[in-house]
Amino acid sequence: MKLLVINPNISDDVTALIEAEALRSAAPGTELVVRTAGYGVEYIETRFESLIAAGAVAEIIAQYTCDGASVDGVVVAAFGDPGMPALKELADIPVIGITEAALCAAALQGHRFSIIAISDRIRPWYQDCVERFGLGGRLASIRSINESLHGIASVQQDFKATLLALSHQAVSEDGADVVILAGAPLAGLARELRGQIGVPVVDGISAGIRMAEAVIGLDSGPHRAGAFAAPPAKARRGLSGNLDAALTTAQNAAAGATQPASPAPAN
User: Fold this and answer.
1) Is 2-98+210-254's fold the same as 99-203's?
2) pLDDT digits (tens, 9 = 90+) for 15-72
3) What separation in angstroms does the CA of 190 have from each of 129, 197, 225?
């Protein structure tokens, strides 16, 4: 199995954190191809920054799928899942966001969950994400660091005590049965805090890798119809060669799958 793991922000240091946790989480035999967005921002906090990141992620997916899938699945490795669920329309392979993976993992382990985030500014976007997945009623709280970050790659080291305190508050004050440590900059921290909070702790990167492996293993088939079918063919311009080719491939596959079957010849 080969997974394409995409960091939607431009921080190579965060990509290194993602790759390290992905390697620890992947099953034996799973190969990882880890890539960083070609353009965008250092880290994503807002809906608009997510919009920019979505285009960068789409370009990387297109690069690997326009000539036929050379990977078995994609993990979009930023909490908030930039471009999701629209990216599911682009490829015939599973495209899994770490938010949807973490929420599913949390929902399997407890009734109510809390999200621990790296900034106050990010909270409205995360709230939108939870609502979009239909889990707003199970969200106990979103708690966040309210101090300026010294550097995106050093958040764990700089604020470990704060993140642990926020997690304890989510359990004792908000009633969380599960805590999600949100965002690629926190990749791997759940391993350190496991057992110190009193409830299961979910890491988005590890959840994304394991959920992608599981969905690929189900072999349920691609979207050829319905809400996640490829966008319909129409005039377009200004797209990169890879993105244009990936769209054409997806549209042709969908068109072929929806052609009515030829009637059986009469005897």
Assistant:
1) yes
2) 999 999 999 999 999 999 999 999 999 999 999 999 999 999 999 999 998 765 689 9
3) 21, 10, 38
Per CATH, is 99-203 categorized as 3.30.420.40?
A: no
2-98+210-254: CATH topology is Rossmann fold (3.40.50)
pLDDT one-digit tens code per residue, 187-213 = 999 999 989 999 999 999 999 999 999
**142 phi and psi angles, rounded to 5 deg:** -120, 115
| Contact by Cβ (8 Å): 208, 101 | yes
pTM of the model: 0.92
Predicted local distance difference test score (pLDDT) of residue 69: 61
Q: Is the pLDDT of residue 262 over 60?
A: no
Domains of the chain, by residue range, sit at: 2-98+210-254, 99-203
89, exposed or middle or buried, with CB in 10 Å at 0-12, 13-18, 19+?
A: middle
**What would the pLDDT profile of 217-259 be if each residue is shown by its tens digit?**
999 998 888 999 999 999 999 999 999 999 998 888 878 765 5
Do 13 and 34 form a contact (C-beta atoms < 8 A)?
A: no
Residue 260 structure tokens: 């009515």
